[in-house]
């Protein structure tokens, strides 16, 4: 069974950087597309970024474009989310997700992903 474990969250100041990591196990990592989602208090979960298997096409939510970068290391079974220029509105629990067979139009849809991590809290303070 696939398992995802996020790490790297914390309390940071506005304008600083943070890198989230997600460790994948229990499957053949390179066959999975991966994504990051977040959920702020009182709000619905929203898409942040995704990276497609086989070719590495990336997808970003508009508010994080140019600030966040998703990447993966297939040799280490790891997914990363580099977050620069953090804003208070980036405060949320961040979740890593993985799925097979996702097409471009479904990469931003959380329901298309098969497996989820437990989340890591990111708090951006002013």
Radius of gyration: 13 Å
* Number of beta-strand segments: 11
Which bin fits the share of residues in helices?
under 10%
Strand content: over 45%
SSE succession: EEEEEEEEEEE
Averaging pLDDT over every residue, what do you get? 97
Query: Uncertain spans, ≥5 residues at pLDDT below 50?
Result: none
What is the 3D form? globular
Helix and strand composition category:
mainly beta
Number of helical regions = 0
Distance between the termini: 40 Å
What kind of sheet is the major sheet?
Answer: 7 strands, mixed
Task: Explain the overall architecture.
By secondary structure, this protein is mainly beta. It is 0% helix and 48% strand. It contains no helices and eleven strands. The chain has strands at 3-7, 10-13, 18-25, 33-39, 46-51, 58-60, 68-73, 78-83, 92-99, 115-116, 120-125. Strands 2, 4, 5, 6, 9, 10 and 11 form a seven-stranded mixed sheet that branches. It has a four-stranded antiparallel sheet with strand order 1-3-8-7, with no helix packed on it. Strand 7 and strand 8 form a beta hairpin. The chain is globular and about 40 Å long. The chain starts with a strand and ends with a strand.
Spell out the blueprint of helices and strands.
Elements: E1 3-7, E2 10-13, E3 18-25, E4 33-39, E5 46-51, E6 58-60, E7 68-73, E8 78-83, E9 92-99, E10 115-116, E11 120-125
Parallel strand pairs: 2-11
Antiparallel strand pairs: 1-3, 3-8, 4-5, 4-9, 5-6, 7-8, 9-10, 9-11
Key terms for this structure?
about 130 residues, seven-stranded mixed β-sheet, mainly beta, four-stranded antiparallel β-sheet, single chain, globular, about 0% helix
